[in-house]
User: Fold these one by one.
Assistant:
Number 1:
Amino acid sequence: MASEMQCGVFHETYKSDMQVRPTTMQRARILLAVVFAFALPFILGSVEMRIVNGVVIAAIGAIGLNILTGYTGQISLGQGAFLAVGAYASGLSSVYFGFSWWLSIIFAAFVTAAFGMLIGIPSLRLKGLYLAVATLAAQQIVQWVIINWDPIDGAVDGRTTDALNIPNAYLFGNPEWRLNNNEYAFYFLALVVLIVVIIAATNLFRTHIGRAFVAIRDQDIAAQVMGVSLFRYKLLAFALSSFIVGLAGGLLAQYSTAISFERFTIEVSIEYLAMIIIGGLGTISGSIYGAIFIVLLPELLRLLGRAITGTDTDSIRAFNSLLPFLQQGVFGLAIVLALIFEPEGIQKLWRNIKDYFRLFPFRY
Amino acid sequence: MRKLLLMVMVVAALALMGAAVISAQEATGEPIRVGAIFDLSGATGDVGTPYGEGVIAYVDWLNDNGGINGRPIELISQDYAYSAETAETLYNQFVDEGVVVFMGWGTGDTLALKSRVAEDEIPFISASYSASLNDPQGEAPYNFLIATTYGDQMEIMLRVMLEQWTAAGNAAEDMRVAYFHNDSPFGVDPLDQGDAYLASQGLQAGLRVPMPRGATDFTAELQQADDFGVTHIVVQNVSGPAALLARNVVQFFGGNDVIQFGCLNWCADENFVRQAEDAAEGALGAIPFTPTTVVVPAQEAMRAWLAENDTRTLEEASLHFSQGWTAMSVMAEGIRRTLDAGSELTGPNIRAALETLVDFETGGILAPITWTSEDHRANRALAIYRVEDGLWVEASEVIDLRAEEGM
């Protein structure tokens, strides 16, 4: 590969034209990434795996949001609400209907898709910021329902409980592989879901549906003139996006087994928006990079904080008042710098690096 | 970026070196690891910060005074910014590092951790006093409630209000209570018990008024309460919004003496008085932890520690400081009793030791603590306080619901 320099990818057959990853280099990288993902649990301890699991759930959720916001151009501030609907649909169906974990997660995805379509109805008339405010309403309504509707907390015996407690779930019924306890078992489950979602989402944008989404994003009137039914495809975008977010919510519920409204606030919605903006709007890989960035950065800052203070009470006291704000400051700074240096997100940065080495030592 | 990182590293290195020099202390045995999460930068950071300072201060004080039987406490703690996810991550990390007990904070994260805590067998004291955490035979065998539950606080508050109301010559049935509460599980937690108490007295159930987050004015909510014929307001929220409400009440009803205002423990503090100023006068507070304005023996050590290590007085450090200090001291007592019994420091042993506490005195900060294997509520007793000239002073004797139950 290295010997032949490329100035573009040329297709000579329809078959090669249809390939998702046409070059050997691309395929090698994908293979490497998959091998790395499956090797990760063998390298890391359970504490680190917990953070990795957070990344995987966030990546699934971010891909879902990116379908709606990045590809179809419908800004949503309701991501937290969609996650909540997924998590509670999964949790409540486990508690009340006795669904097994996998059934409850699939159920959650469909329920969230239906909810997403409902929230998507105003999108026919509203665009941009106006739509964002409409989805914000969804966020508030869902939060209100979670807080104030008693059965949603599993308070079946009339006792007040503040969080929905979900029965433990086991992978393949193996008592060793408990999803909320065994980080490794959950990781393999979540990783498989992530891979399926990546493949599905990548292929979605090779079909007429995906192309219609992109057309709506780029110029909705032109899309309509071309025969794209705005109503149908916008709702479809909401449904598909929410379906995937519902998967993430369901996974989250089965993973943490105790869920309360505090996990699904407006901050969560904004965090997911930050993920796809930093990672790269309208790209699948960007969603994953963004999820890694947003989840990992605070963890790294925390680790650094731990390293600074240690466990000595005097040094903890000295830094306690300062450190949280320093961490928040660095977090904000990192986001601003990322956007200044590469407004198109991390995936563009990665593409630049690849381009650079493809033509090395020359450049465009 | 690189420069910043370098700077942070240099600061870190200096701090570590400094710390190494300072930390030549009395307690020298094998350290006992204690995990803790504090909210320093999140939604409840205003009260979480002094609470965390109190926990750290107690550990520092204890280690300087011989630790627990010569063994120092090694506190593994971090800010979790009131996020349940972060709490879970930190909890797992700290348990992995070998902590034997854990100091938690909020209602949401304590509940989220409940089943893990039970599995890992880690005795857990948090700053949430929700009665749903008291389930020692069932789902929460390792959660201990250090203070009077929100429900009991509400019941005692209503009782004192009713006594004062009838003593002033009013007919009991004219009493109308409005609950102004945080719109969250924390906020609604005590309301059912409040209504049950009112019903037991033949009174009408209270009006529930959720306080919207970030509200800057509660006039609309007060209008609703006024239509209901409100005579008493009880607030279950943190002190910031409660102070705003108190100011609104004075404006709306034209004075402090029209409506009796009452606060449960998270709003009855120095911050409430500071922010509400004159509007706080006459307000009642259900405070399980003795306010700093009332002198009790346990405060001596706190004052001495602050004088040596801090620039603030105990009054400035606030009652939440003494709350954190006391919570940590009770946990330390459980560890001490385990060691005294010659048992190994394991979760089940520490739990058993905590369950041997009978009428345990905290130097006047809390009503005596009794934990049994059936009941993990420390007590059901507290005194009601009132704001007079900007200070919280005692307005009632200690009322003990558990003692009355036993009679």
Number 2:
Amino acid sequence: MAQSDVLLKLKGVKTYFFTDEGTVHAVDGLDFQVRRGETLGIVGESGCGKSVTSMSILRLLGKTGKVIEGEIMFDGENLLDLSEEEMRKIRGNRISMIFQQPTTCLNPVFRIGEQIIEALQIHQGLSGEEANKRTIELLTLVGLPDPVRRMRSFPHEISGGQAQRVMIAMALACNPELLIADEPTTALDVTIQAQILDLMRELREKVNTAIILITHDLGVVAEMAENVMVMYAGRAVEYAPVHALFEAPKHPYTQGLIASTPVLGNVRDELETIPGQVPSLLNPPAGCRFASRCAHRMDQCTQEEPPLIKLEGDRLVRCWLY
Amino acid sequence: MAVSTTQVEAREAKKEEYERPWLEILKRFSRHRFAVASVVVLFVMIVAVTFGPLFMPFGETDTAVTKKDQPPGTEYVVPKNLYYNSIGGDVRTAAGTTLTFWLGSDGIGRDLLTRLLYAGRVSLYIAVAVTLLSELIGIIIGVISGYFGGIVDAFAMRFVDFLNTLPLLPILLIISTILEPTVNLLILILVFFSWTGGARLMRGQILSLREQEYVSASRALGASNLRIMFRHLVPNALAPNIVNASLALSGVMITEAALSFLGFGVKLPAASWGNMLKGVNTTILEKYTWQAFFPGLAIFICSLCFNFIGDGLRDALDPRAKR
Amino acid sequence: MTVSNSTSEHLLEVRNLKKYFPIKGGLMRRTVAEVKALDGVSFSIKKGETLGLVGESGCGKTTTGRTVLRLIPPSGGQVLFEGQDVLKASAGQMRVLRRNMQIVFQDPYASLNPRIPVGQSIAEGLKIHNIGTPRERLDQVAQVLERVGLNSSHMRRFPHEFSGGQRQRIGIARALVMQPKLIVCDEPVSALDVSIQAQVLNLLNDLQKDLGLTYLFIAHNLSVVEHISNRVGVMYLGRMVELSSRDQLFRKPMHPYTKALMSAIPLPDPTIKRDRIILEGDVPSPVNPPSGCRFHPRCWLAQDICKHDDPAFEEKEPGHFVACHFAQG
């Protein structure tokens, strides 16, 4: 039953934004899959399309954005074919999400408890009493100290780290099959980030939710993910199990990314850099999008888009070198 | 690359111009078609009201007793010589000439077009002067208040609150009994009461902008407060004030009309767009629509033009604006 | 590194610097409490050296940078720049000092005036100080733009036409054109992507080598600070808790907070499994900091003494200052 093992499968997804300045090819042909219980890390720099990918899955693209091609199969169902009504039943219920700025995701005028209880009542139809009990359970689960009292707090009364715990509690409220975490620790201090990552690891074992972890921090990916997808300019350039990726990155971009990250306890005189900048997604260049910054550029690279090439050990790389 | 090499070269050639962005601003303004059209329309209007009356066969207050409430296009044979401003002097129109009320005549037989032109002089003057002066004062007080904060801000804003609680009309009535009401006095008084909105807007903008890092950067370079306020803050905070000014303009014309009713605005028989509209009632609207329509149209066109120009200016002053 | 005799060895000396922000409340806007953003911080920087300041949000590192430059008035303490007290300088002296002390900001979007061509932003300092003719200023702007890796023709463009990394280069150019001796770098790379961050860090390094600049480098990212600094100070809740040479600090941290901070950083290497120290709770409010050692509520080594006695900032090993009763290597 290999089929049912796959929870989410994206096939040739293209998400474009139609703006005054032109069409932004934010995600331009993306294929990947997430198995049940798996943690997939998506890494890339700003503008690579990693956040747009998550918004495409949840169909929260706003007015200007649209998935124009491809399919997003979630548990055998194409999310793009669902009505808005059906989609609403999936969001926050079977797929939930945590965001970078936890404090802005909580409504400032409602108590924390009320917000979680509301989610439980909407999605699971629990009674007030049951929802209340479940909320306390959830807040205890995410390690919020003194949950009964904290439920009565307003969002501004808690710290960023605690707010992220509340967001995680909310996300887990309905036992989602898939949790999308978009830069969940970027806005937090390192010691608080350590707490939250620790919590996420712990919860992963307890509730067996598949996680898509979106981040720009290679350290976070190395610690949390089983498999990693590296994105660049709207496309996946490399896909590999986490150990293999850090041991021997294949794509020149991944190599550059790893080499340009300063690593604690490993001081180098000069950091490797990737020259130049990410190309504009208004008019993405033909061929390989990394070509203009790549040290291994060949003639072929600027003319023809390399396909995702399968390498041994479950790896994929989009580069003509292989 | 979004910028082609030729563009880069063109920029290179004129690079000393980086200290004179006015050309750029003009260029961006000229891309705003409605704004440019509005400038043209306003210019034509100003020329018309300035020089137009000199060529009109009627004086501002000449009446044709037999031709009250005539519709546009009515012809009229002048029974006696018309003089400038109907008080002797040079003959403007000799007796026996056939004239046309191009826009009709009003309730006592005055030519509407003539009055519209005379009225435009004073109405435009008052509206522009009041708006510009009150925005200028408002901007200066707003930026000082927002930038320095503390006691300066508290004092300025309480004064603004105080002014806003004063009832305009009774106070004007009192003033008009003490002083001889003239147009310039009217302007001063209107400015005194109307700068507060602009000041509030500017202050609010400054409060958020002053925390921007480019302000700190400028301070770190040793810039004076004056430089920070007027070089860095005001240009970035101007947009709401420009919109406010363009909206305030038509408001001033209406206020002026209300005031003239109380004997403080432009006094009859002298005409202003406001007081031409003032006497309008349902009978006039139904039977002599043109008497209300043309002054109304003049105010409407003016405020529309000012709004477009305001839009254009706002965009032109913002280098980020596209198109 | 170039000049070093005993009198002018330290370019900058900060002694017992304090900054309390008042919290106003009530009808009369009286000060009801104070945020003790900086509570007695001392350090010095040698010519040509980079001192890194690390710490989490609210530790006072940014306030330190701004107070040193007198962008915000201090509540107490001394800042000596080449022996001259910056905080007591007259307006005239301050003008001269401003040329020598510059700052590069974190947010490349907010630190440039969006309505002014970048060339003009860079030239502003020169103009304020009446340096050169317009033509000469233009040449200097062109030169400095080339120096930071941009094209001199970029000067007529507006900030929104540049990417984040390019804007940060412009911010550096603006500081550099004044030919300063000290540059305070306030989180200069934390808003940038990794590959761009590396470019900017290398640029800062090159500039230091070529021009003998001195940096006060403020950042929350320990790896970045380790990469660029000669010495590093760790701050917590308005205090300096540890200050030492880079190698000593990162090889042999002595303060428990430093240890926790270092172990909290996720390393981009999945093969490393570390015993992570996970601190409990959040950073306490600087309005009402804990008694005794400010770190004691979160410290796993805390004893009774830590609750009552504020540990002194002492030199436990040569050049290695720590404020902890139980400092150990």
Number 3:
Amino acid sequence: MPSPLIEFQNVSFTYGGEEGEPVPAVRELSFAVPRGEFVAVLGHNGSGKSTAAKLCNGLLLPTEGKVLVDGLDTADEAQLFDIRRRVGIVFQNPDNQIIAAIIEDDVAFGPENLNVPPAEIRTRVDEALKAVGMFEHRLAEPHKLSGGQKQRVAIAGILAMRNDAIVFDEATAMLDPRGRREVMDAVLRLNREQGITVLFITHFMEEAVLADRVLVMDEGRLLLDGTPQAVFAQQNALRAAGLELPIPALFAQKLRAHFPALPEDILTEEDCARAIFRLFAQKGGNAQ
Amino acid sequence: MIKEITIGQYYAGSSPLHRMDARMKLLLTLAFMVVIFLCKNFFSLGLLAACAAVLALLSRVPGGMLLRSFRPILMLVVFTSVLNLLYTNGADTHPLLELPVWRWTLVITREGLFIAVFTTVRILCLILVSSLLTYTTTPSMLTTGLERLLSPLARLRVPVSVFAMMMTLALRFVPTLIEETDRIMSAQKSRGSNLETGSLLKRIKAFVPVLVPLFVSAFRRAAELAYAMESRCYTGSGTRTSLKQLRLRLPDYLAAFCLLLVMAGVVALNRFFTAVI
């Protein structure tokens, strides 16, 4: 079996220490993300999920335990360059990760650091911008774009490096619903069409249900790990972690009090609509 | 309104000046400025002024925009010409004008007039060529051009590429920080702070509660930016390739040749005619 792309082995991370109490952010975290998988990480504020993101490519180093990327240890400084060319991160604030004053220059930043020859940088930049639907804006200035557009540029900046995996560190948290949908669509497409491994950190349930697998973090620990259906079935555990079910699931739950025939695993609006449709189609059939 | 900011004063276009190599433009602008200071009489200065005018026409930058670039130095020009006009002692004994003012007499000599006009034309030429450079070159191209021109200094361990990166980042964050200032000012105003009236000292004091959060947020941004840059394999070492390839083409060499001709012309005219300065 090939080694997983990202692997956390019993990782703990503690902030601070110089003044005041050291704050543990991640405790004994273990999980593995195989190539090509779309994994969502859920957790409320302070659950340690953002710290976990920065541990993925050695921006932070574990206080205890090991993080392996494609078998390379992030604690080994000599490997950091190779680790970061495999795993890129898209951060929360689109303004603080765009480096150049022209979009295409920004997308070129990563490949330039990788010493890619100029002609190939050109093709990579164009491809990456097309993949996120921002090619027409390649000569625009970042401050003239919307939040969703800027975040797609940030994704293109990582794509142009041809990474194997992209970690999204609450990349949709500062966006309006429309921007969130734009980014989510782009991420799903990259995962399905280009086979890019995705670790999607979020506190939006509606986004987590689209993943292949959901990890739930609470107080720096891994609480739940499984398919969206399996994770969202554990409503009490989620509540304890300060999380609610996605709205369509809550809605279906209320409906189920009146229509016990509704299935238990409804998570998305589409699931919900289909189930209701089926229910009424059945009822109609019974009445006849 | 903040969306309208454009950094620098680049005027998008595709004139011959726009298409020139940024390095050549930088070098030639510098050379032109030096030549402006070589002029000794009105003939050579006239030649240069004519060249600057031709360049302005070639750039196809609207005249209004060019005039606007003179505005910030207007005071300086007026000030220096007045001083030159009044403080130059002519060699000839017949002043053009003698104006008795109270206990003094204002004497305006031919030399004074000449020098005033001369310096004015000189300053205007300087401003014109340097703004032509920034009108026809994007800030990022200027940065790249400068980086390439200075790259030999990297051998002397001058961190040229790091400076270029700092310049790029500064250019990138100017609009972001202006936006932020705007936001903080609105927030403070809505809490009743008065930023617009009162004495200068009062207004400066009122501005402190704007500056403090601005700096705090700038530092936070810088920290996040560092993460983002490291994440994208930036190491700060000098070896990076670049999307932008600068290439010297025929027009660039032609431009350099023209400047050499002009330079020769200036030297010749300086010789043939008596110096004013």
